[in-house]
Amino acid sequence: MTASHRPESFQRHHQPDQFGYSSRVVFLEQPVVSTHDSAGQAVPWFPDIDDYLDAYHRVGAPWLWSDRLAMGRERITRDLSDPRQQCWRVDDERGFAGFCELVSRRPGDAEVLHCGVVPTARGRGLGRRLINSALTGARALGAQRLWLHTCSEDSAAALGFYQRAGFRIFATRLEWVIDPRRRGLLDAGAGDAVNLPWTGEAAVNAFSAAADAGSDVARSAGNR
C-alpha cells in the first residue's frame, strides 16, 4: 500500500438481537528513526493497577475500549511491571489528559497498545506528544519498527492523525464484535462517541444487567 492509501469506504453491519457489529481494523507502521518534533514529549508514567484502569476508562469508555477489561487484574499488573512495556501520560489544567502504552514483544519491533486523550483534551496537540514519546521509547528498546492499529469505533480523525505522524497502512482486517456493554465489560453509559443502532430502554436494561454481572476489572475501572 502506498503512503497516500486510504481504506475503501466501510459499511458497518449489525445484528441487533445479539448486540453484534462488524468492525474494520486498520494496521499502521513506521520506521523508528531519530527525529525532533516541536510538539515535545509526554511524561514517563508508572501507574499502579487502579490508576491504570482509571485512565483506561476515562480515555477509552466513550470509544468502547474493552480489551484490557477482559483481562484479570493479575495479568494487567504483570504487564505493567514488564520492563518491555512503557507508559506515558499528558496533563492539562484539569489534571490527567491522556496516556500512551507501548510494548516490545519481539526484537526490533514495538507496538503502541493504547494511545488517547480524554474528551476535553482533544485537538490540543497532546496526542502528538504521546506518539513522540512512543517513538522515543521504541528507539530506547532497540526497535526498528513501531506499529499500531485503529478501528471503526475510534475517532474518525484517528487514521489521519496517525498518517500525519508518519505512520503508513500495511494491513486491514474485518472483525465481528459483541458490544462490550452487553458482555458486562462497560456500563450502559459508555460508548457515547460510537454510533450504534441499539438505544432505548431495552438496550439499557440489557447492558445494566450485564454490568451487574460483569468482571471485577470492569467494575473497578468504572467506579473510580
UniProtKB/TrEMBL annotation:
Lineage: superkingdom: Bacteria
Name this polypeptide is given: N-acetyltransferase domain-containing protein
Protein's UniProt keywords contain Transferase: yes
Gene3D superfamilies the UniProt entry points to: 3.40.630.30
SUPFAM superfamilies named among the record's database cross-references: Acyl-CoA N-acyltransferases (Nat)
One Pfam family hit: Acetyltransf_1
GO molecular function, one term: acyltransferase activity, transferring groups other than amino-acyl groups
Keywords assigned: Acyltransferase, Transferase
Organism name: Spiribacter curvatus
Occurrences of domain N-acetyltransferase (ranges): 43-201
